[in-house]
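To: structure desk
From: M.T.
Subject: fold request, one chain
Message: Could you run this one when you get a chance? Sequence is below, nothing fancy, just the single chain.
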Amino acid sequence: MMLRTILALALISGIAHAAAIKENLPVAATEAEIKQQTEGNNAFAADIYKALSKEKGNLFLSPSSLSTALAMTYAGARTETAAEMKKTLHFVVADERLHPVFGAIIRNLNSDGKGYELVIANRLWGQKDYPFHPDFLRVTQVNYGAAIDLLNIASDPEGSRKIINAWVEKQTREKIKDLLQPDSIRGASLVLTNAIYFKGKWANPFKPEQTKEAPFFAPSGEVKVPLMEQKAELPYAKLEDGTQIVELPYAGGSLAMDVIVPAAKDGLAALEAKLTHKDLTQWLGSLQPQENIHVFLPRFKVEFGKDVKDELMGMGMVLAFDVKKSDFSGMEPKKELYISKVIHKAFVDVNEEGTEAAAATAVVMAPRGMAPKPQIVRADHPFLFLIRDTKSGAILFSGRLVEPK
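Reply: Done. Structure tokens follow.
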């Protein structure tokens, strides 16, 4: 009897899924599925940060933006190309559930009447008259809200590039400009874009009159920076090696910034070298509200941009970039497309009032071609930071500050 009930429920769920797709409506996802894939996305966040940490200087990115843009691309991947993407990107739910789950994650994160602004948008840009599979376009439209705009990329790549850049600039409130550089989409048949914008005020704002010039111990030497200061009850943890973590919540919701400060002034590289998703999950899970946390944090801005193709290939996603062996036959019948670039650009501005951050990703497809005793957290040397949803655990942005600017 129980088996029949389970089978009946599964059948009803399948019928509802099919009906929603047919009517171009979002498909429901369970809390368990959302939690499972959020963990997967966070594992990718740790991996891509570690890969990019080899870059010199400041670093800031949105693993969420990368995951989403590549998930849309995955909708058209098949065979071994899909298998490599699934493993590298940590897509852990069943393929037929993945896109509805991503859609649910996006809808849950997009702010609606909250005290902060968080907007995630997706769009496809395709070559006119190119024979994209209707099912692929339906999956991206229904689950990601990614309509396709048809452009004359072949005959007017620069005009098409400017149209895409204008969309990205608008979605990110003019914080991400010129995502695509001249000639970056010449010869492309499809560009998949994701844009994410966040602006939030601290739940406990820093008072501008308490901000003082103070030394920051950068690799290049001691520099003077505007060091913000506050005392408050905040989630806090201190690891065995002396690393301190403090969580600064934003007003109006569950978003927060986690600042991870190594004990040694030159300890960031060692911390990054041993960083894993498991470690990060344990560290953030150890945060506990504690009174009298005394925080010193620089006021800073970071901009970062890069084609992350090499990092993704180093993580195991190779075939998707192979001009001869890629398989995106779920995207178009010619079976001729491969990923030529994964361009990512991000910006963050942290000040006394709060934080503004934005990022965008473009996947370019080309034919084959926080007690009585105060705990002082003094971020006066290189440190890591995250912006995440503390309710779901989703990591939206991650970065490090090495040289304040």
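Reply (cont.): DSSP finds ten helices and 15 strands in the chain. Let me know if you need anything else for the meeting.
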